[in-house]
Amino acid sequence: MPAPVLHIGNKNYSSWSMRPWLALKWGGVAFEENIIPLGGQGYGRSEIAAVRAVSPSGRVPALQLGDLTLYESLAICEWAAEQAPALWPADALARAEARSAACEMHAGFAALRRDLSMNVRRRLGDEPDWPADTRADLGRLYALWEHLLARHRGPFLFGARSIADAMFAPVATRLRTYAVSIPAFAQAYCNAIFADDAFQSWERAASEEIWTIEEAEALYR
Questions:
Q1: Same structural domain for residues 27 and 57?
Q2: What angle separates helix 184-195 from helix 197-208, to the nearest 10 degrees?
Q3: 185 sits in which H/E element
Q4: Three-state SS for 11?
Q5: Same domain, 27 and 123
Q6: What is the rounded end-to-end Cα distance, in angstroms, of the chain?
Q7: Which among 13, 136, 149, 188 is most buried, taking Cβ atoms within 10 Å?
Q8: CA angle 141, 106, 16 (to 5 degrees)
Q9: Total domains in the fold of the chain
């Protein structure tokens, strides 16, 4: 079978693409990447032609495995863990807890995602005045991180890097982008993400991208 191909969106904006990309890198799973610039006709409606050509859902990321395509971030991360089991904690209970945290990020924090879209290279000068549901999401985020970092003694949520960290890594960038005032333990966790070699590789590529999504950039004007 040829090497897996991970189809992803712009590294500056595509939080869902970052998650399995980090998992594959952390697991040492060899893959090729294909960046499909997002925006333009069909954007926001899962109708971009170039994405439709490689992903049945019309969304990225999508992992091409021969004649099989996985088109959902957490499913791709789970496939990566089949190749590299250390992407989940070795202890069964910790592994279950890590899956719970990853799934909460996958399905929850809707207000945070609505108001703090990912833009890796952007920096706001002042933190916005968040609506109540976004403040509630931030509070839940800090409570979850504090619990896991204390329980598993950091620097990552379960001690060593895991899929749970891959799921939350884009959130760390969002907190930085929007100048969010965060607790010290949360900043230390974000710093651990930012110091990671694979994350830094993604960040460098994001800073060098020539493509922009006008709808996304309009949020910062």
A1: yes
A2: 80
A3: helix 184-195
A4: coil
A5: no
A6: 47
A7: 13
A8: 105
A9: 2
